[in-house]
Amino acid sequence: MGKIKFYKTESIPLELHKVRIVQKLNLVPIERRLAALYEGGFNTFQLSTKDVFLDMLTDSGTNAMSDNQLAAMMQADDAYAGSQSFYRLQTAVEEVLGKKYFLPVHQGRAAENIISNTFIKKGDVIPMNYHFTTALAHITQYGGRIAELLCDDALVIKSENPFKGNIDIDKLIACIEENGKENVPFIRMEASTNLIGGQPFSISNLMDVRRVADKYGIMLVLDASLIGENAYLIKQREKEWQENTMADIMKMMTNLADLVYFSARKLSSSRGGGICTNRRDLYLKMEALVPLFEGFLTYGGMSIREIEAMAVGLRETLDEDMISQSPDFIKYLVHELDSKGVPVVMPAGVLGCHLDAMQICSHVPQSEYQAGALAAAFYLISGIRGMERGSISNQRDEAGNETWADMELLRLAVPRRVFTLSQIKYVADRMLWLYDHREMIGGLKFTYEPSVLRFFMGKLAPTSDWPEKMMAKFRRDFQDSL
Ligand SMILES: *Cc1c(COP(=O)(O)O)cnc(C)c1O
Fold first, then answer.
1. How far is the CA of 446 from the centre of ligand 1 (A)?
2. Per-residue confidence in pLDDT tens, the chain, 482 aa
3. Cis upstream peptide for 200 (omega within 30°)
4. Is 447 among the catalytic positions?
5. Residue among 55, 59, 124, 223 flagged as catalytic
6. Least CB-packed of 42, 253, 291, 353 within 10 Å?
7. Where are the alpha helices (DSSP H) in 273-414?
């Protein structure tokens, strides 16, 4: 499908859908937002949506559903075993991801649990382009460790590398040689590398990974949670694939992997996940764990209605008009901010816009959680909830020391077909105000710090009265509390 061209204007990310069901939003006054921050320990995960205007925390389970998905949910065949809904999903998985054996799970991390449980032994090393929080937690849970083998410029904020999610092939070979192939149960490639700013890998890189995997007889596992967006950026950025359809590109990606798993919360619907493969031996090794951890093999902990939505949603990822909406809005927002000098991860990736808190809050020490502070400050002045992706999202090491993140990012997620362009313009406008007043952002310290996944439950407090001062300045500048 060709993109619509505009006369005299720069490109406008046009919505190729109409809104037919709406949900009212509230923008509560800044005084209430400040109180909500204190109640939630300056952790945006702890905010209640009644206090949130635009929820840009995550794309997980928040993408808009289509009319066809909702219609399919009405046809659900409720059955513990042998549900027709499951077979419809299995057919969709085979059509879209090209794999005939399918194990349903309740969400992406459950797939990671089953894969790690089955294939990892103590002391193993899992090479990957980059980790995702839950993947890392499961790999270490079963005694493995990870080796992140990104190319050198992947962590450079402003880069022109179209494929920052590529794995470095020389580092991959060195890692396998060093650890011995018997201690490398699989190579993990994550589509649209979530934690480094939603950055894709190329098909040619994945082909190189496949060659290495074949040479050493190692499995290749693809985390396909964001495969649609990665495929879309391949079509945009990798010359050899520009004439191909989304279906061709996605099939090519999954054909190169032995095992594909995904979180359906990102990929296709609002819950669920799955593991699929064409290798019966791999399927049989994992099969028994589904009834053990998830539920029977024909529902895997999902509701049957969700399974129907997933089947339709999977096919919809092949529709370029649908899949392009979020990346195109992100590109718009990234360029809007970059053109005014705000440091954002470039090139624009998928999933959301990622701001560099290390630069924006360079006056705040990393030990006072720059990205967490930026997230709190941005909520305060806008009512917009983003997510810290920095050191708070890391865990302490075994000795109890902080493990400082490579990047301190504030992620503003742009779920599919949820926001309008005027809302995106509001995001940019408030961020420009905050950037101009960045010196006013202060640090945070933990007041309650759980040892596992602290970014979810942890509570923090400001290190001074900077939020109060910022509120006062905001009220003066806008002559208002909204
Ligand atoms: C969200 C996500 C997961 C985990 O999926 P859940 O459904 O949240 O458990 C795994 N990998 C990637 C790349 C993700 O984005």
1. 26
2. 567 888 887 788 999 999 999 999 999 999 999 999 999 999 999 999 999 999 999 999 999 999 999 999 999 999 999 999 999 999 999 999 999 999 999 999 999 999 999 999 999 999 999 999 899 999 999 999 999 999 999 999 999 999 999 999 999 999 999 999 999 999 999 999 999 999 999 999 999 999 999 999 999 999 999 999 999 999 999 999 999 999 999 999 999 999 999 999 999 988 999 999 999 999 999 999 999 999 999 999 999 999 999 999 999 999 999 999 999 999 999 999 999 999 999 999 999 999 999 999 999 999 999 999 999 999 999 999 999 999 999 889 889 999 999 899 999 999 999 999 999 999 999 999 999 999 999 999 999 999 888 999 999 999 999 999 999 999 999 998 99
3. no
4. no
5. 223
6. 291
7. 280-287, 289-293, 304-316, 320-323, 325-339, 357-360, 370-382
Ligand 1, closest atom to CA 265?
7
Tokens found for residue 307: 């399974």
Centroid of ligand 1 to alpha carbon of 389 (angstroms): 14
The two tokens of residue 280 are: 């019966």
Say which DSSP state 158 is in.
B
Q: Is 455 a catalytic residue?
A: yes
| From 106, 109, 302, mutation site for ligand 1 pocket: most ligand atoms within 8 A of C-beta | 109
Residue 56 buriedness (CB in 10 A; 0-12 / 13-18 / 19+): buried
Q: Does the C-beta of 108 come closer than 6 Å to ligand 1?
A: yes
